[in-house]
Amino acid sequence: MIAFAGLSLFFLFGPTGLTAPVASGSLDAGNVLQSTACEQIAMGVSSSSVVYYTGSSQYIKDNYHWSSSNSQASECSFEPATTQDVGIALRILGQTQTPFGIKSGGHAANAGFSSTSGIQIAMYSFSDVVYDSAAQTATVGTGLVWDDVYTALEQYDVTVVGVKATGVGVGGVALGGGYSLISNQYGLALDNVIAFELVLPNGTVTNITGSTYPDLFFALRGGFNNFGIVTRVTLKTYPQSLIWGGTIAYSQDQWEAVNSAIVNFGANVTDPKASIYNSYSYISGVAAMSTILFYDAPTMPEGIFDEFSSIPDIEKDISTRSYVDLIRSVESNLTSGFRSVFNWVAVEEITMPVLNMIANETLSWGAELEQFSAQAVSYDVIVYLPTLYDHVDSPTAYPPSRSQGYSFIEVYYGWTGSNFDNTMFDAVSASARHMIETLTNNGQDIANVAVYPNSAPPNTGLETMYGDNVPRLQAIKNAVDPNNVMGLTGGWKF
To answer: Which of 86, 258, 320, 334 has the greatest CB tally within 10 Å of its CB?
Structure first.
């Protein structure tokens, strides 16, 4: 039996004083039949929240997504400005059984995960960053992208754990994972959330913490939008000075030397302030490699990155700089507009055979998929310490096991022809299976390591991402959303 600490009829009906107000008459049966959900929301919410229709520039912005495979034309878009208005909208959507999408930064790749043909909810108005120096926390709206959060906190010489590239939204990362350049020091983004402002499917607005509602606190850290709409998250902050780092690009003839440097770094560097992120890429017929070097201080310890610096490069952007300046130099929008798919493979140990395998996957799949409109194929190697998952004191929905930290291979394919979607999905899955088989045959015990939900391809099974946590997550979902309102929106569904 699963215990639900703190879950009660509160979540089914909402206590007096916490239930979102609804405009008189806006939800009666006659109105449900006589007007569309778009019109009902427009009539029912406050004047600070706005519904937009086709032809409006704001409608276009609300429906824009980084990946065209996750882009749809909605019936209308809705920008709520208050939690009460979010609650009103959820009630209307539930009563009318209208599909909807929830967009934070719009960086999801899988079709329908944050987009919809129904009502597109865009969280842009939740764009506040409130720093509490006494508590050493920042409360952040889910309508922001992480580089804006880092910028807002820079004046206080602090930062939060988010992502390592520009243009990615707060919502999907805080609710799904968040692997960062500073994760060796502080864990994942979701490990650093101490509170969620949550609008439940019944319209109730509440604050979820480990002490108030421990089951929901567990579920929200990795469980995405299954339990309502999160409007703000409160995160731990950490001191942030200038950092040393940037990107070096190498031509294909230097790959073996760079591979050797990566292996030596993984084997010898245990300083949690140091991080590397290496991308093997095949773009428009050209193979290349780029490496992000990062040290969380204005200067690096002598010798720690010397091997990388000694290899002939084709481009280098390394300096002492602000943390946000480094993040903004790592462009994720270069692949904007492509159809996209990701995959994720764990690695226990970075070795030369492992990196040679990754290089071969990049070159072989890059060449093979060109005929299917592939524009970009990349295999990224993210090196982490075995202590990666040791920075949280209570269980989280993801990862289901924290017994060991891993390094990872993140696979990305970008293409243009929708008629090749299934070909790309099959290819990215075949590549992952081949790498898992090769790693396993080489003695690495990674076959059952959970796949990162934010980098999982379509049709990935829940158990593959959440392991033994699936029954508990399903039970929590059923308790807080018995009418399955959140089943009307996209994403991984419990």
So the answer is: 86
**Distances in whole angstroms, Cα of residue 234 to Cα of each of 122, 203, 212, 318, 324:** 20, 21, 14, 32, 20
Phi, psi at residue 290, to the nearest 5°?
-135, 145
**Measured distance CA(253)–CA(257) in Å, rounded:** 9
Show the CA angle centred on residue 491, arms to residues 487 and 492, nearest 5°: 90
CA distance 277 to 491: 27
Q: Which residue has the tokens 């992480």?
A: 146
Model pLDDT for residues 340-384, shown as the tens digit of each residue:
999 999 999 999 999 999 999 999 999 999 999 999 999 999 999
How many other CB atoms sit within 10 Å of the CB of residue 416?
A: 13
β-strand pairing of 76-79 with 50-52: antiparallel
Task: Specify the DSSP class assigned to residue 124.
Answer: T
Backbone torsions φ then ψ of 198, nearest 5 degrees? -120, 130
- Residue 19's pLDDT band (boundaries 50, 70, 90)? very low
Q: Which residue type is seen at 423?
A: T
What tokens does 85 get?
């208005």
Residues 6+ apart with CB under 8 A from 56: none
DSSP SS3 for 2: coil
What confidence score (pLDDT) does residue 34 get?
A: 36
Instruction: Answer whether 266's CB lies under 8 Å from 352's CB.
Output: no
List, as own/partner pairs, every contact residues 164-168 make where C-beta atoms lie below 8 angstroms and the sequence separation is at least 24, other chains included.
164/277, 164/292, 164/327, 164/330, 165/327, 165/330, 165/331, 165/332, 166/327, 166/328, 166/330, 166/331, 166/332, 166/333, 167/66, 167/105, 167/107, 167/331, 167/332, 167/333, 168/105, 168/107, 168/332
Q: Could you tell me if 187 and 391 are in contact, meaning their C-beta atoms sit under 8 angstroms apart?
A: yes
* Strands lying side by side in the sheet with 374-382: 315-321, 243-251, 286-295, 274-283, 374-382, 407-415, 339-347
Q: Report d(CA 246, CA 187) in Å as an integer.
A: 21
At 24 the pLDDT is 33
Instruction: Please check the confidence at residue 10 and state whether its pLDDT lies above 60.
Output: no
Model confidence over 197-219: pLDDT tens digits?
A: 999 999 999 999 999 999 999 99
